[in-house]
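Q: Here's a chain of 375 amino acids. Please give me its 3D structure as tokens.
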Amino acid sequence: MSIAKDKELSALNSPLQLSTVFKPKIWGRKDLAPIYPAQEDADLPVSRKAEISRGASGPGELIGEVWSNDDSSRFLNGPVAGLTLAEVSQEYGPALHGRAWEGARFPLLAKYIFTSDWLSVQVHPDDDYARVHDPGNVGKCEMWYILEADANAEILVGVKPGVTREALKSAFEKGKSKELLIRHRPAAEEAVFLPPGTVHALGPGLVLFEVEENSDLTYRLDDFGRPGLDGKPRPLHLSKGMDVIREDQPPQCRLPRWEFEEPFGTRRYITACRYFALEEIFLRKKATFKSSPQRVEVYTVLQGEGRIENTAGWLGYRTGETWVIPPAAGAYRFAPLDTTRLLKYYVPNLVQDFRRPLAAHNIPPEDIAKVVFDI
């Protein structure tokens, strides 16, 4: 029987675990601690073994990204167990995405990134440019939340003042653009906002969480002449990249930290725009939340173990897992066995979800604007 025929009997009314997908990268790592610490294969749960077998093609491979949600991610419980995110998005539509989302594809993409070398210098287009020049794609607005940073770790965000477009293009062509870009040393728990048009790159020694529009559309500008996984130089996209660069766009680093006490622990409003919002929730005791009929919400577990419960029953959660809260889930509760650190991402109502709560904590509008972006 098809998903469509089962749809009426298969309400998405409970939290759903989604498998993560491990992706090899030339700049990745073998050690994915602290999110995915090394374990003997016999100690891994069946779901984690499946994730690793899909993501890595051989032992010892460098993993650079672990996608919290991907079109190929599979649901691990509930009426859609065994189906991919793409399949369920296509068949269930608003029952998974919420009333406010009109697209057929899942509205968000999020991933962990683990670096041991420089990533390429990149830029992303906005939606309008993508529709015209890469039909079938949307643009890419994104943010980074730094989880760990070595003492000498660096990122590149934006173009140095006074650098001409001609000089920038020449540097890209020669593989020597780093010196023309703004270097920044990030710290753990720092947020960086990257609107379309921002030239950027990640350096070695970082663990971070990235949230973005559900788009992998990237224009590579400088890969420093190195070979890819296939031994061949990776292609550059200079024509399109130069079209979309906004060289006068200032870097949005060191965003203010707005964190407040809650009955269950603390909540931090990290950043938000019309495409996504990210909150960090620390649980020291049980916490009850309620789903929204307007949207889907997703949690990734940064730290801790416990149970996630609702009227349909309960399931255990652990570090590194992804949990999807469908609009019809209703009330649900996290019951931590130890201190739990969650990242929650969703498509927000900027007034209700960020501006109003921050104003209620007496944050002035000009400071709210430093974490809530109108783009």
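Q: Can you summarize the key feature?
A: Confidence is low (pLDDT under 50) at residues 1-7, 52-57.
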